Amino acid sequence: MKLSFYRVALVNKANDEQILSRFNGENDLLDVCNRFYYSLKNNKIEYFDNQGSKRVFSLNASIDFLRTDRVLVTKFNSAYTGDEFDVRNAVTSRLLHKVKTDELQTRSLFSLCHIPKNSKYGYIVFENKANHGAKVIFERGFQAFFKVSGYEDYKVVMTPALNYNYLSNFINNGVLKKVRLIDNILKKDIQLALWDEVLTICSDNEVRELNFKKKSASEIAMVKKELFQMFFSSLNKYDKLCFINQYEVDDISFLINYNGESKTFYMKDRSRMRAIIDVSNQLMYADGNPTYNSMVKASLNLIDEILGVDSLGIDIAA
């Protein structure tokens, strides 16, 4: 089971971050979030994605409001149209139902919301399932609910809640596969640099990719060490990044493989990273399914880890 973690902030028209437990001097975002959840029981959110598939987000499960812990726990329903497939008996393979492209395919997504007292940041966890991303539709729906609730001067901002303990282990124990150099202005001299494996990729960004096929293990280890140190250092988003004493670029991304998973890291634009963690080995199971209590515990434990290092401003989107 994988979980996606997001950090929630609230900004006013001056782009000032608010204390969530009293964001306009009196209202608590946790209570507003609880009312939003109950609204989804009667008012589902619908829209069409870029592929023309209908997306529906709703809630009909129970909502556990743990006020002392400042936690909301529930299961959302995520559904979409577009795929045609057969539902068959697992033993006989007899056709039970043929799903048409205009029928909704629905999945239940575990979710936990934690809004600490006197904090500018809250945290929302969604169960991660293929083709059932919840962040965009949740953020749109929550913002619309804010507006109709009379809070039109505030904007909900959700960014990946990166767990740096997890990411540190991922880099240290993983295998470096790619490094991409991102620049606003393509520099001709970079094509002639010592790394003759540099490739030019045509896209919206000017990107060069370093190829490690001809490099030794020690050379790759040195590059990986420099990437690690840079990733965990304090960077100014307006400064150029100096990399392996050869390049000055606007940003760097790199791909790490670990335990069969791949993760792309960005030095500056960390809003592009995915805060997804496999928690399967942290859960208890009953009849093959993770138990409710273990999912809550795993979510809160990982939020606690994030809170231990999550002190950057919202514009850094860490």
Write a brief structural summary.
The chain has 318 residues and is α+β, with helices and mostly antiparallel strands. It is 21% helix and 34% strand. The chain starts with a strand and ends in an 11-residue tail after the last helix.
Structure overview:
- With 318 residues, the protein is of the alpha+beta class.
- The protein has two domains: 202 residues, no CATH class; 107 residues, no CATH class.
- The strands form five sheets. Strands 1, 2, 3, 4, 5, 8, 9, 10 and 18 form a nine-stranded antiparallel sheet that branches. The protein has a five-stranded antiparallel sheet with strand order 12-13-11-16-17, covered by helices on one side. The chain has a two-stranded antiparallel ribbon with strand order 6-7.
